[in-house]
Description:
Layout: E1 5-6, E2 19-23, E3 29-32, E4 36-40, E5 58-66, E6 70-77, E7 81-88, E8 90-95, E9 113-116, E10 119-124, E11 129-135, E12 142-149, E13 159-164, H1 167-170, E14 175-180, H2 189-194, E15 203-205, E16 209-216, E17 220-225, E18 238-243, E19 253-255, E20 261-263, E21 267-273, E22 278-283, E23 289-296
Parallel strand pairs: 14-15
Antiparallel strand pairs: 1-17, 2-21, 3-4, 4-5, 5-12, 6-11, 7-10, 7-12, 8-9, 8-11, 10-13, 14-16, 16-23, 17-22, 18-21, 18-23, 19-20, 19-22
Amino acid sequence: xxxLKTTKAVMSQPxxxxxxxxxxxxxxxxxxxxxxxxxxxxxxxxxxxxxFKNFGALRVLNEDRVAPNTGFPFHTHRDAEIFSYILSGExxxxxxxxxxxxxxxxxxxDQYYRIRRGDVQFTTGGxxxxxxxxxxxxxxTVHFLQIWALPWKSGLTPRYHDLTIDEGKKRQGFVTIxxxxxxxxxxxxxxxxxxxxxxxxxxxxxxxxxxxxSIIPPDSSATWTIGGNGAxxxxxxxxxxxxxxxxxxxxTKIRLPDGMVLAEGDGxxxxxxxxxxxxxxxxxxxxxxxxxxxxxx
Length: 297
């Protein structure tokens, strides 16, 4: 995590060898199903663009809004690391691992995880798991990021993790939320069960990948250290995706090290960066900017 700085005191310098390419909000895939309003950064469902299949291990980044009393019914995932980052509202999760062997369709109303603003819910799909994600609130829409990563091996044992991130810490700088499983791709069953991440207090992922988030006040900046200060295996040519969610009605903007400005819903692909390089992001809108970074090999 890094401290915030005022943009008047510090000006970012371009990364040494990195290339930064914008992914504008209006260019994303989009579908409004009534109950679900969704934007796709990468090819997903009926949206397909051969230019946007994945970026390193990052495979899916959907910005979803789900209407009250609706949601995703039970469906199966395999061989994907899937996580939900809640921006507002609440999301109720039920799965086929609940209740000591109770199947997903038999799960009762009391067998669930309910996640809210500040929460991250993580799934290793592995050999196969079924779950549902529902907005059971009577009146409030849930707004969240649904993110998928490609695991470093197939057939993993399905697992779940949940984490709540302190809002105050995100306002102090970038907070690391997800980091690689410390035991690596050759982890034993016992090490898989222990689920120890490289960065203490984070969710372990089966990929050479990090996720971080910060809430940056206007006229301030926060710095993401690429590769998380030794947290990753691949040190060269990291691929970092920066996303600015649509949270403030268009009032937030950020500036990247090359001078590029992103508005709400925009993202940027950063390639060719090396571990330990600093990625400084400035908040240049009129409202605080919640920024998510996904740092992959």
